Amino acid sequence: MPLPMRLLREIPPRLLWKFAVGAGLGNLRAIRRFEQRKKRGIVFPPFVFVSVTQRCNLVCKGCWATGVEHPVDMSAERLHAIVDASVAQGCRFFGILGGEPLLLPWLMDFFEAHPDSYFQLFTNGQLLDETVAGRLRRAGNVTPLISIEGGPVSYAVRRGEGRAYGTALEALACCKRQGLVTGVATSVSASNFAEAVTPAFLDDVVARGAHYVWYYIYRPSGPVPCFEEALDDGQVRALRGFLLEQRRRCREAVIIDAYWDHEGKALCPAATGISHHINALGDVEPCPPIQCSDCRVGVAGGVAETVGGSPFLAAFRATVPGLTRGCVLMDHPAELAALAGRCGARDSSGRGRFFEELAARPVLGCHNHGGAPMPETSWTYRFAKKHWFFGFGAYG
After folding, report:
1. 294 backbone dihedrals φ, ψ, rounded to 5°
2. Alpha helix (H) ranges present in the chain?
3. Buried b (16+ CB within 10 A) or exposed e, 196-222
4. Which residue among 71, 95, 181, 204 has its CA within the 20 to 30 Å range from the CA of 354?
């Protein structure tokens, strides 16, 4: 069944309306305001991603949100201030990350306190039971994005246990029963490539209730990075080809990536200014795995002033496109460390070892794969990427 028909049949009208306005029309308006600001030399992203806690109920290999001796939670006051200040800049859509966000007992009340904003909840699904799904339905302005990393074999490798896989699938079922617009996120690594990059996996999670599937490329991070899990160039090209094929084949769900524009050219969303990340302490970072910052958002707001006054973020946008169209953390770690040093960026990981970890990183491949670019072959995805997401000209 085509996705529009699925949404009409599976999603209650109130939730569907909030999704269409918040994640659809609201995002388009936010992007227009972003482009207008950028013409005036002002960069504030249309999408804001916030990690609300450093705590997690899983310990996954290669995750940046591990190894913190004394993990902290963001205060509700700071999160309210971030959202209110970002809304004043025209933002409508927010990603809520962790650690595991559902460890925060006040999070459901927070969603309900911002009915005119829309939130994407990144979760491992271990705490997303029927009660939580019911609260999300009541709020109406949240789409859960459940991390499902392939199958039970992949979970045993990356997460040290197989039972997390079944719990994540049950979370997906809870969301389906509650009529939520729901996504599945998959971080593709060497060990789960054979399970996750297949039509069978895609069809399975869609049949279980996923309306969109977001494929990430594994970026080794944290105290146990597992560099051997990084994809090689051939696997990256195969993943790109798989996404193009499935976008033509699979009509029941949207297939998302944030790595390639409509022409198949690699890019870094942070380098375009389209997004930034705020960690649990309020430190503003280019993205979650790049855990260094030269500015912090306070509980009194001032988000736009803080972001606009950051030498590191400005230098990141100016410098990275000249180094790579891919991921600077993966293929230019030494240059990233030098850039952070010149700007006085401090370690914001909570581990106190980010720069040591950065110095120990090998040069790895990423989405800036070898060979010719592979353009979008679906006109709908091509149009959406060109006009709504990546047409910002950061790479000339």
Report:
1. -120, 10
2. 3-10, 13-19, 26-39, 76-88, 107-112, 130-139, 152-158, 163-177, 193-196, 199-207, 233-249, 269-272, 303-308, 311-323, 328-331, 333-342, 354-359, 379-384
3. bbeeebbeebbebbbbbbbbbbbbbbb
4. 95
Domain residue ranges in the chain: 3-367+380-389
Contact 348, 296 (CB under 8 A): no
The amino acid at 144:
P
Homologous superfamily assigned to 3-367+380-389:
Aldolase class I (3.20.20.70)
Query: Per residue of the chain (396 residues), what is the pLDDT tens digit?
Result: 899 999 999 999 999 999 999 888 888 888 888 888 888 888 888 889 999 999 999 988 899 999 999 999 999 999 999 999 999 998 999 999 999 999 999 999 999 999 999 999 999 999 999 999 999 999 999 999 999 987 666 655 555 555 788 899 999 999 999 999 999 999 999 999 999 999 999 999 999 999 999 999 999 999 999 999 999 999 999 999 999 999 999 999 999 998 999 999 999 989 988 889 999 999 999 999 999 999 998 776 667 777 778 999 999 999 999 999 999 999 999 999 999 999 999 999 999 999 999 999 999 989 999 999 999 999 999 998 887 776 555 544
3-state helix, strand, coil in the chain (%, to 5): 45, 15, 40
Residue-wise DSSP of 265-304: -B--HHHHTSEEEE-TT-BEESSTT--EES-B-BTTB-HH
What pTM does this model have? 0.94
